[in-house]
Amino acid sequence: MSDNTEFLPFARPSISEEAIADVVTCLRSGWLVTGPKVQKFEEDLKNYLHCPYAHTLTSATAGLFYAVEALGIQAGDEVITTPMTFAATANSIAKQGAKPVFVDVEPGTYNMDVNRIEDVLTSKTKAIMPVHFSGLPVDLDPLYALAKKHNLRVIEDAAHAIGAEYKGKKIGSFGDIQIFSFYANKTMTTGEGGCLTCADENLAKTISLYRFHGIDRPAWNRFGKNGSHEYEIVFPGYKANMMDIQAALGIHQLKDLDSFIEKRQKLVTRYYEKLGDWSELKLPESPTYSHKHGWHLFAVQLLENKAGLNRDQFMAAMKEENIGTALHYKAVHLFPYYQNTFHYKRGDFPHAEAISDRIVSLPLFPTMTEADQDRVIKAMGRVLKRV
User: Fold this and answer.
1) DSSP secondary structure string, 7-73?
2) For this structure, is 282 an active site residue?
3) What are the extents of the domains in the chain?
4) Could you tell me which CATH class the domain 257-383 is placed in?
5) Nearest 5°: phi and psi at 15?
6) At residue 12, does pLDDT exceed 80?
7) Which of 45, 156, 237, 277 is least surrounded by CB atoms within 10 angstroms?
8) Which of 99, 126, 186, 292 is catalytic?
């Protein structure tokens, strides 16, 4: 066991003193919920992402659910997606009574294999929901070409991909619909929170109504000095509006986002240098198309036959070394609900299953030092009996 008694987590948010001060100012202002800070944060997001519409939400999950519903996807419909993702992706489809139709992933990148999509298209297919795994953009040109050919909508689960780029363009600056996450362990954070971007004015209006009860104007436009107490319920909506407290943090996080990604990239480059010849590991691969990786995660695969222990044993041993790791993710089709409801089974998606059984996320965050990283690598060496 490590002599170092301080636990090193797999993720840690980087929050500046300026951000903390702005959150405190927000608290002292007496305006805590959706207000001017949210409005500014959304403007900043639109400017950063080069998109016409950006709606903040309580979570990326809410964005996924609302996007599926707003597109009119319902019972009997099908949405093509990947099994190698967090369950919220598929849950947003299943909750509408539609069927998530999985396609296997690329074994090197963990992303949806776009070449497999056409094989599962049917007359019931209404949308494609790719996931930019760990911040690596899916190959979007052929995906969107296919969507256009078959008149399908595209909902990009970009929960990991804020700041990522595909062929020189930011994810969110083009395409159909994108949903980003600002959860505590993401590349930038508002604690909880997310954002939906799109270029469709009617969809943007619908999402705006969904997130606050179907009311046609936000509270801060009604309760201010010049506001009107009158409002209309256009249709029964939900409650998923971001608070000004969160937006105050998000404004500063967005300013620092590019530097966060740059620091993550340097650490990732060093992981590749230090771990590249370890036979016990399979490191994630890069696609040939031009891209900028968001590096929300650095997720390797542990090869049990070489390592002498399985992934779960490795994670437990690393915890004994006071090093945090994480599991991202168990393939969705292996969960009981998806097996019982849609009759998926082990063997359906062999690449996703192999990754699911072996994947482990190593520590990666902007304030992580090279000394921290060396500590992780030395602990891995001890666990794998390399030293």
Assistant:
1) -B-S------HHHHHHHHHHHHHT--SSSHHHHHHHHHHHHHHT-SEEEEES-HHHHHHHHHHHTT-
2) no
3) 17-255, 257-383
4) alpha beta
5) -120, 120
6) yes
7) 277
8) 186
* CATH architecture group of domain 17-255: 3-Layer(aba) Sandwich (3.40)
pTM metric for this prediction: 0.95
Read off the pLDDT of residues 199-216 as tens digits, 9 standing for 90 and up. 999 999 999 999 988 887
Instruction: With a cut of 70, say whether residue 218 has pLDDT above it.
Output: no
Tens digit of pLDDT for each residue in 126-156?
Answer: 999 999 999 999 999 999 999 999 999 999 9
- Sheet with 281-282: list strands edge to edge: 281-282, 298-302, 359-362
Mean pLDDT of 16-20: 97
Fold agreement between 17-255 and 257-383: no
Closest CA to 207 of 174, 179, 245: 179
Rounded-to-integer distance, Cα 145 and Cα 143, Å: 5
Residues listed for the chain? 387
CA distance 181 to 161: 8
